[in-house]
Amino acid sequence: MRSVWTTAALALTLAAAAACSKHPQSEEAAAAPSASAASAPDRAGGAAADLGVKLAYEHEVDLKVEAAEIPKRLRAAQEACNGGKFGPCAVLGLQQQGGDFPSASLQVRVVPAGVDPLIALAGKGDEIASRNTHAEDLAVVMRDNSLLQDRLRKEHTRLLEFQGRHDLKIQDMMILSTQIAQVEAQLQGAQQEGAQQQRRVDTQLLTLRFNAPQSQANRSEIGQALGDFGAIVTGVVAWMIRAFAVLLPLGVVVLGALWLIRLLRGRGRKAA
To answer: Is the pTM of this model over 0.70?
Structure first.
């Protein structure tokens, strides 16, 4: 009988844990009205309400830099980030293009205090063509992740308590081991996701784009056209030679046909 009751209790616990995992939003939905009710007195009293936001900022900056200066500015910004000149910083991406239309881009993740100094270093007083800043509020996502981690920890604790019992059958032990492994994997994934979300809040994503001024781009287009002049003339002459080579046999055939027609007409007149 003790074994039967133990198996029944284990089954009920696993069923409750599965139901809790399948309905992760129930506790959050119940908590939302309570939070709104708690903040209502503050709003009614006119006090400044705490927004409770957790913003992940992203900046995109376009800089107009002389073509010869683009590699230097790119290298300076990269070295400042790698060296932690303006605080913790990590280079996420780098791209550079030469030729007639030189450009470059650098994407970094840096602490908020290092955003403006890094932009100033990359620009060095040059024109900022555009700067776009937008933020994503991760407060709800981070709260949900925290609730999920709490539930998984509690479930993991309950399963470990059952695993420590000495009256479990081998089949029950196998079921428990599988359930514990699944919960541990879910908890690890939630912890990694939470760390990434916190990293996005604590640091900011900055993308610097270096482009030559429009006047230099226009001069590059003129220089490219002049450079292509010889190739264009050569291509046209080659096309004319090919056309002549194609039309020459046709011309010979047409002239031969005209000569033959005139010859036949002349003989017909003499016979008449």
So the answer is: no
pLDDT tens, position by position, 190-209: 999 999 999 999 999 999 99
- The percent of residues above 70 in pLDDT, for the chain, comes to 72
Give Cβ neighbours of residue 111 (< 8 Å, ≥ 6 apart). 86, 87, 88, 89, 202, 203, 204
- 């036949």: which residue's tokens? 264
Kindly list the domain boundaries of the chain, sorted by start residue.
Answer: 55-136+203-213
